[in-house]
Structure to design on (434 residues):
């Protein structure tokens, strides 16, 4: 169990907290930068202390798979920025989604999921459905009414993204949160594409927030990691569901997580089951690099959004481009929701389609010289990929079309380069399509 506590009252603004939250000068050495604790185990003062930590009777570090001081600093910082009571850092964003679903659900349970999600999330959901009967009930569309229509007596949660990867649609989080509240369901929001610099889903009613820290939080394409944030306000007291939170744990002397940890029961359940049992712990080096990246998050997101808006506008007016999916442009589908939730801009990841279809999409990507052909997103460097053959290849053709990742589609992740250089690279790649 980590020594992370509930987030203190926020007395500083976001950019200040991005630099300072969760870490302080090292009391042993005075080091101002968060130390990297490269150790797998921690010496106990006594056998009583060791027993108490393992039985969850007191907090403290025991083994780095479950908690590490460097990782705990990252957890505190992300929890602070998201307005959560606690956070659990894990080895990847995919692990974060997996742990959330497996902590919430038992075999036979279901959850309502957005029909537009990152391809890796969709693939995971279908695998869990086929092998473990954790059943995704996909909403017919993106409106709150679509989510409500998909709820059944088996439903135990609602899952969506704040900004959809990769089409950049902005979700009506307050509307979906109202649906979740009416039905007594936790709302889980993947906030990877927005980051807390653009959207803080808990402020709009979310109960659980997940991130792939490999994207904007880290920012430099150096690390893999994920984080789960617990808002700490959902009423988990349902005897017929959420057994990891409500039922006694025999191997922890009958511990009932909701009773022992009322402010952060979901985070504690994720740590006990997800990290102690399943084991996808985060490396302290990756935690350190992510902490360093977060220090510049507000500055980077402002530049990401400004560059993306300029690039999207250029593509929208280009004669070889069929359409652009970026609601930060006037008149685009979803522009009103984008203005409401992300006035700074809906991030820097979006899709566009070439009139020449898949052959031109492939030639365009291969013709880029400055923008890298790379599957990640949210880096300081600009990146391009063909999602239909990579990140979303497991979708059926009609599903790819609905998600705006058909074979003619290119996904861009716009970085921090001078925007004139980005447009020049895009222009020369488009010129090669003649």
């Amino acid at each position: 169990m980590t020594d992370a506590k509930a987030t203190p009252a926020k007395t500083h603004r976001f950019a200040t907290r991005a630099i300072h939250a969760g870490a302080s000068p090292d009391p042993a050495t005075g080091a101002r930068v968060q130390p990297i604790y490269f150790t797998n185990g921690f010496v106990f003062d006594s056998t009583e202390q060791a027993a108490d930590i393992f039985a969850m009777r007191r907090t403290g570090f025991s083994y780095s798979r479950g908690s590490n001081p460097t990782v705990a600093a990252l957890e505190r910082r992300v929890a602070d920025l998201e307005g959560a009571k606690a956070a659990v850092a894990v080895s990847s964003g995919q692990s974060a989604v997996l742990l959330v679903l497996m902590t919430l659900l038992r075999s036979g349970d279901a959850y309502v999921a957005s029909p537009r999600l990152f391809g890796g999330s969709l693939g995971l959901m279908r695998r869990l459905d086929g092998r473990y009967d954790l059943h995704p009930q996909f909403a017919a569309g993106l409106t709150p009414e679509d989510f409500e229509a998909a709820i059944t007596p088996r439903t135990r949660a609602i899952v969506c993204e704040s900004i959809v990867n990769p089409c950049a649609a902005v979700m009506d989080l307050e509307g979906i949160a109202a649906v979740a509240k009416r039905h007594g369901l936790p709302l889980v929001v993947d906030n990877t594409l927005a980051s807390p610099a653009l959207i803080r889903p808990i402020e709009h009613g979310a109960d659980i927030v997940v991130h792939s820290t490999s994207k904007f939080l880290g920012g430099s394409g150096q690390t893999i990691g994920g984080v789960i944030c617990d808002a700490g306000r959902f009423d988990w007291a349902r005897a017929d569901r959420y057994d990891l939170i409500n039922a006694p744990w025999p191997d922890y002397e009958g511990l009932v997580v909701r009773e022992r940890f009322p402010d952060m029961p979901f985070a504690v359940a994720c740590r006990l089951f997800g990290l102690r049992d399943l084991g996808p712990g985060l490396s302290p080096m990756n935690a350190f690099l992510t902490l360093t990246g977060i220090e510049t998050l507000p500055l980077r997101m402002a530049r990401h959004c400004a560059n993306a808006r300029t690039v999207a506008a250029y593509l929208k007016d280009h004669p070889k481009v069929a359409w652009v999916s970026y609601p930060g442009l006037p008149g685009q589908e979803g522009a009103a929701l984008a203005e409401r939730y992300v006035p700074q801009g809906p991030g820097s990841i979006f899709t566009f389609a070439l009139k020449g279809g898949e052959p031109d999409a492939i030639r365009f990507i291969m013709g880029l010289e400055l923008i890298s052909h790379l599957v990640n997103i949210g880096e300081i460097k600009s990146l391009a990929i063909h999602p239909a053959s990579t990140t979303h290849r497991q979708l059926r053709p009609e599903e790819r079309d609905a998600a705006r990742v058909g074979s003619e589609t290119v996904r861009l992740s716009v970085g921090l380069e001078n925007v004139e250089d980005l447009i020049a690279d895009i222009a020369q790649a488009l010129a090669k399509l003649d």
Q: What stands out?
A: The chain has two domains: 14-294, 297-431. The CA atoms of residues 165 and 357 lie 21 Å apart. The longest strand covers residues 155-161.
